[in-house]
Design a protein that fits this description.
By secondary structure, this protein is of the alpha/beta class. The strands form three sheets. A six-stranded mixed β-sheet has the order 4-5-7-9-11-10, with helices on one face. It is built from eight helices and 13 strands. The chain is globular, with a radius of gyration of 17 Å.
């Protein structure tokens, strides 16, 4: 058995964000509307979640996007500091970007992996994978540059094709193949809302999930816990977790065994 911990949607802020002006200030006010803009509180919640993930003795921790509030460099530096303070070994952590991480700059996450997050590049860069005894973890980016008024995502066709090859590779025949990504697969029931917030061009990923029984997805973005089956009567293979920024449970724990990923428990935020 292999144990995986999921942490998602940290939405970290830089300490001196109140010194912003102009469009950067407007953007941050728009994105933080309805939530506390306290950088210290968000950092404390993120650190608590990561420490609790480490204390579960999980074999690996996936952080499924919206690592920052709008992807400015200082927020990625804050993330690097929090990860270091958590005492998690970089080889035990996979990071993927969310839509919030690219609002400032479409290359912000890639640049962070070359800079403050370089210790996590081996497990988190495009094309990476982490092979454990019972699971193959594949980071999949759904983040694309968008105006701040949209929150949708897209998986590049090449990434879907590679994921399919891994899921069908006989070398991994007894392993769960886990796509760690920000946006959930599938469509919103309302077409207009899907265009604003959903995973665009979802048909290729949906077809892959229908074809490959060992392929599972752990996602963020929805800010809620989810266990979803691909077809009626089947075991769930799409899983979401509560957001660290505003959730009550900030770590979701799974066990991988015999080609299945099974939710084990949710870990609550410290009182």
């Amino acid at each position: 058995m292999t144990r995986i911990a999921q942490v998602t949607d940290l939405h970290l802020l830089e300490d001196r964000h109140d010194s912003r002006s102009g469009m950067e200030l407007w953007r941050l006010r728009y994105l933080t509307f309805g939530r506390s803009p306290c950088a210290r509180r968000r950092r404390e919640r993120a650190l608590d979640a990561l420490v609790r993930a480490r204390m579960t003795d999980a074999d690996h921790v996936i952080v499924t996007g919206d690592l920052t509030e709008d992807g400015v460099s200082a927020q990625f530096e804050a993330l690097a500091e929090v990860l270091s303070e958590s005492k998690l070994s970089p080889e035990r952590v996979t990071l993927v970007p969310g839509n919030h991480d690219l609002y400032d700059d479409g290359r912000a996450f890639a640049r962070a992996l070359e800079g403050p997050l370089r210790a996590y590049a081996r497990t988190s860069r495009p094309g990476a994978m982490t092979e454990l005894r019972d699971v193959l973890i594949v980071p999949i980016s759904t983040a694309v540059p968008l105006p701040v008024t949209r929150s949708s995502g897209l998986i590049e066709q090449g990434a879907v094709e590679r994921l399919g090859r891994l899921a069908e590779d006989p070398h991994f025949a007894w392993k769960v193949v886990l796509s760690a990504q920000h946006h959930p697969p599938g469509k919103h029931a309302i077409a207009a809302w899907h265009w604003i917030d959903g995973l665009q061009a979802p048909e290729a990923m949906d077809a892959l999930l229908a074809r490959c029984e060992r392929l599972h997805v752990a996602h963020g973005h929805a800010h809620r816990s989810e266990n979803r089956s691909i077809r009626a009567g089947a075991s769930p293979r799409v899983f979401g977790a509560e957001a660290v920024v505003d959730g009550e449970t900030t770590v979701r724990l799974y066990r991988a065994t015999h080609g299945r990923l099974v939710p084990e428990t949710d870990v609550a935020l410290a009182a």
